[in-house]
């Protein structure tokens, strides 16, 4: 059996690299469309200031993109180094969208980003705008295919287990592509990225306005960011609701953990605004609830129940017992593929194979399973509730804060008095970290809430790891954290350096007089 320490260290390393990487991804997703908007205005109006806006913000985008690529490449290597059995077990399905992302999206994105920076004097206005647009499309296609792969991990459709190869195999590619969980995750994630890009431009523009420098440049950037950000944060909220609905359909355990819902309530279920979850006693020591809200969000109805954690655990117990039959039959088929009785037995219980594999954490043979071990496996099917519960609420709270900021910014942009609202400029500036915090919390809820599975209901995490030494994992974890921290420091240094220089670094002067640059 794999040691628990090895599993925990493998998870920690992947979580650390993923969280570091996702500091760069949202800004890339959001900034690229702001560049498209700014350059479109330049092409339509011919005003040089919009070209300079595209070039300046594009410089900051390029710094972030380069470091994002650097942190992202090492993540994919970990599937082979730290998660070898996972790669073997589901590589036929998981590898396809990642390969398409690399061949179609990443190369498209990387090719046109070069043309974006070096094509200003070699391409016409329209041609360069097309380059910027294709760069944006490539960036979003990268996100699409990665999230299709991740969405399949959350809701494994379009694939079946083949007992002759002992692997999951793809049976319907398009079912995987149009997986509702993947599509909801994609639109929610890219909208969060758009919000991040908008907040970045809004905050730095606010800093310029507070300093009284590059005023016309900052005013135009502020207006574009306010409008784009308002639309984006509204999309995040609406599409987040849709994402919550798909979670309720595919992962009832995660939804119950997000709401600290221990008992199945009469429909429509209430929403726990705040609570103190007590997992040991399976109750909330304190809670403030809003009637009906969770039932409407989670089921889109007034009469459909949302199962509580206690009911889910009893269903999981039944599936574990059924899964024991599948594992027993599978072990027999590994010795004799022609055993007709075991084939029939396996087919009858194969839907619960993953639940039976949860027992491998404690025993090497199903014959060794006891009621106490089944109880442990049942408990394992429920993730730690408190981090998911509070992480989700912190994410939502940050989203509402950004909605307020963008609403006020857009309102005062329309009124034309935002430069005199220094409190608003300060609020926007000091809220700069908000979208990153919200994005990281969102991934915490999505990935931590999937435990104990790497592939939900199919492959337990403890069976997915490579057979490595604990010492080597400590070394690689320290190396990754050190290297990624260095990259983050480089990113921060370069961003601050060029943001302080402002558009003057382009050699076009400071934007104090709009008429001079019209």
Describe the protein in words.
- This protein is mostly helical and 518 residues long.
- It is built from 18 helices and 6 strands.
- The strands form 3 sheets. Strands 1-2 form a two-stranded antiparallel sheet.
- Helix 3 (48-81) packs antiparallel against helix 18 and helix 11 (309-335) runs antiparallel to helix 12.
- The longest helix has 36 residues, at 215-250.
- The radius of gyration is 25 Å and the shape is globular.
In short:
The chain is 70% helix and 6% strand. The chain has 18 helices and six strands.
Question: What is the topology?
Answer:
Blueprint (H helix, E strand, L loop, with lengths): L3 H18 L3 H21 L2 H34 L2 H35 L6 H30 L4 E4 L4 E4 L2 H5 L2 H32 L3 H36 L1 H7 L12 E8 L4 E8 L2 H7 L9 H27 L4 H10 L3 H5 L13 H10 L4 H31 L6 H9 L3 H15 L4 E3 L3 E2 L9 H32 L17
Antiparallel strand pairs: 1-2, 3-4, 5-6
Helix pairs in contact: 1-3, 1-18, 2-3, 2-5, 2-7, 3-4, 3-18, 4-5, 5-7, 7-8, 7-16, 7-17, 8-9, 8-15, 11-12, 11-14, 15-17
């Amino acid at each position: 059996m794999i040691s628990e320490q090895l599993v925990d260290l493998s998870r920690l390393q992947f979580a650390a690299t993923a969280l570091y990487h996702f500091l760069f991804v949202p800004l890339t997703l959001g900034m690229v469309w702001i560049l498209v908007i700014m350059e479109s205005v330049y092409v339509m109006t011919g005003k040089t200031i919009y070209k300079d806006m595209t070039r300046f913000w594009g410089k900051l985008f390029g710094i972030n993109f380069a470091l994002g690529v650097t942190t992202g490449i090492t993540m994919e290597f970990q599937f082979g180094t730290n998660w070898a059995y996972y790669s073997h077990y589901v590589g036929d399905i998981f590898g396809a969208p990642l390969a398409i992302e690399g061949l179609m999206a990443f190369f498209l994105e990387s090719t046109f980003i070069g043309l974006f920076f070096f094509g200003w004097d070699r391409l016409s206005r329209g041609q360069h705008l097309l380059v910027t647009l294709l760069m944006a499309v490539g960036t979003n296609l990268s996100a699409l295919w990665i999230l299709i792969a991740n969405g399949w991990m959350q809701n494994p459709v379009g694939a079946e287990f083949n007992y002759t190869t002992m692997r999951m195999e793809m049976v319907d590619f398009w079912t995987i592509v149009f997986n509702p969980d993947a599509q909801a995750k994609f639109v929610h994630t890219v909208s969060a990225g758009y919000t991040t890009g908008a907040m970045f431009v809004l905050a730095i523009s606010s800093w310029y306005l507070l300093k009284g420098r590059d005023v016309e440049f900052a005013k135009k950037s502020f207006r574009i960011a306010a409008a784009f950000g308002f639309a984006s944060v509204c999309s995040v909220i609406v599409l987040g609701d849709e994402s919550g609905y798909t979670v309720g359909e595919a992962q009832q355990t995660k939804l119950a953990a997000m709401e600290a819902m221990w008992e199945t309530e009469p429909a429509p279920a209430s929403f726990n605004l705040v609570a103190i979850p007590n997992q040991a006693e399976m109750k909330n020591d304190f809670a403030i609830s809003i009637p009906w809200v969770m039932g409407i969000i989670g089921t889109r109805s007034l009469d459909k129940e949302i199962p509580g954690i206690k009911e889910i655990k009893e269903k999981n117990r039944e599936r574990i017992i059924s899964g024991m039959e599948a594992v027993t039959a599978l072990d027999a088929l590994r010795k004799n593929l022609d055993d007709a009785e075991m084939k029939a037995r396996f087919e009858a219980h194969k839907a619960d194979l993953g639940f039976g594999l949860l027992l491998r954490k404690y025993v090497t043979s199903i014959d060794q399973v006891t009621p106490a071990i089944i109880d442990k496996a049942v408990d394992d099917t429920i993730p730690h509730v408190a981090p998911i519960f509070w992480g989700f609420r912190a994410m939502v709270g940050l989203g509402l804060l950004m909605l307020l900021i963008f609403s006020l910014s857009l309102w005062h942009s329309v009124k034309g008095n935002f430069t005199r609202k220094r409190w608003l400029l300060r609020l926007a500036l000091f809220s700069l970290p908000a979208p990153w915090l919200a994005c990281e919390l969102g991934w915490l809820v999505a990935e931590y809430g999937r435990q104990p599975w790497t592939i939900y209901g199919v492959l337990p995490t403890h069976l997915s790891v490579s057979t490595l030494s604990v010492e080597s994992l400590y070394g690689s974890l320290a190396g990754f954290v050190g290297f990624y921290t260095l990259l983050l420091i480089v990113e921060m240094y370069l961003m601050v350096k060029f943001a302080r220089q402002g558009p003057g670094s382009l050699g076009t002067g400071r934007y104090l007089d709009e008429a001079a640059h019209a």
